[in-house]
Design a protein that fits this description.
Layout: E1 4-7, H1 11-22, E2 27-31, H2 38-41, H3 58-71, H4 83-96, E3 100-103, E4 113-116, E5 119-125, E6 128-131, E7 134-137, H5 143-147, E8 152-153, E9 175-177, E10 211-213, H6 233-242, H7 248-251, E11 256-257, E12 261-263, H8 286-309, H9 315-321, E13 351-352, E14 373-377, E15 387-391, E16 395-399, E17 414-417, E18 430-432, H10 440-443, H11 449-469, H12 478-487
Parallel strand pairs: 1-2, 1-7, 2-3, 7-18
Antiparallel strand pairs: 4-5, 5-6, 8-13, 9-16, 10-12, 11-12, 14-17, 15-16
Helix pairs in contact: 1-4, 1-11, 3-4, 3-11, 8-9, 11-12
Length: 501
Amino acid sequence: MSDVLIYGATPAGIMAALRLSLRGYTCTVLEPTGHVGGIVAGGLVKTDTPDVPEALAGLTRSRLFAGIGAEYGEDGPKYLFEPKAAERVSRRLLAEAGAEVLTGRRIETAADVERIADRVTAVRAGGQWHRARFFIDASYEGDLMARAGVPYTVGREAASQYDEPLAGFQPARAYRRGPFAPNTGYPVGPVPLEAEGDADGKTQAYNFRGVLTRGADRMPFERPHDYDPARYGHLLQHLRERDVPGLSSIVTHTAALPGGKFQTNQALFFGFDLPGASWDYPDGSWKRRDDIVAEQAAWHQGMLYWLANDPALPDAFRADARTFGLPPDEFADSPLGPGFPHALYVREGRRMVGAHVLTQHDLLKPNNRKATAVACWAYAMDSHVVQYYPEGDGTVVGEGTLSGTVHNPPVDLYQIPAEVLFPARGTANLAVAICFSASHVGFSSPRMEPNFGMLGEACGELAAQSLATGLPVQDYDYPALAAALTEHGAVLDLPDKAWRP
């Protein structure tokens, strides 16, 4: 039996394991997929760093991202890299932590989490029970948290719930693009029935963060077995309306990666995101999630093939697209095909309703300072489109962004309190690093991988303190926690940095 069971070999889980090892505690890490490193090793290789660089600190900076820098012979952190480099560093850090790492281990139902009174005692995954004294949920889905019976939410709260002006259905802040004829059909959904500011169960769009290469050994974009060019009718109209000359103008502006590679993201109004497909993912069974992953992969892979081959596109556009391909040295064992990312970018899953709920107000003065800070952060409120729907004769609405423009609503430099990382009461030995306690709007800023890493560090130190004292995590000693975090470089306050773009 290990001292701590960590569910999720994400950057958050890895950083928690590393912190615990430095305190002399043992860990078992259960990872639901076949790979470690989370989305950082699974395709998201253009890292979203804070607008105040000093906020990215601790072992996340000095060991994870500086470890990636060392892969390229650089002294210091590196935030543009290849997935294979991130996975190598992830494996190395887990080995350094002495963690037992088991991949392909999924928590399925509440029967897979054993509790005695107010404590989790064991988790079953892959048909095997794993016992520990403390548990950390560092997964993107929050299955350990949810199956342990901890309160959580999915989707968007009403604006009235936490008095958040940006919460709920936001048609006035939506993108509107056109003309489209027709302006209906996949992936455009029905007109929502909610009133402005109403809650719904809808999540922002997910996507695959693809990696492309122009190398001579590139693998061509293959035609998927369920390929349907009609899916890309809106994209075709949008490319024509914007006079987009080729795939290079969509992907190369995002910054070149080492090895001559390029990162894909949403890019255009219609692009690699697939709004609507993600809604069932957070609370879905693993079978339902696998179906969603397959739909997202079909959309992305079909789009790449379409861009390179569809006769409706100009010859020059298709020729430009064919100068790109999939990298043979990345994702070789991906279940979705060689060269294609093995991880779907789950931008937002479940969110715990914990001891403190981080909301829009916590990101802005005067509520941005906290007495129990475990990290600092500053990144604009970033929610991708939640849904497409038709409006009038030729408009498609992309609703779910928090501004309706290419500029996200700004935040003030803020502190994240320890109370977002554990349940209010009722579960004494659980911390949650990624699906932490926040509203949809509150989550939209701190939902970045470097911050998840730092919150994982805080979860590791909370676990270590709880194990040492025998007290519930809710009864933690903040001065001792702060001292433990700063011992390995965490930055809990930046009083001389008053930032606003």
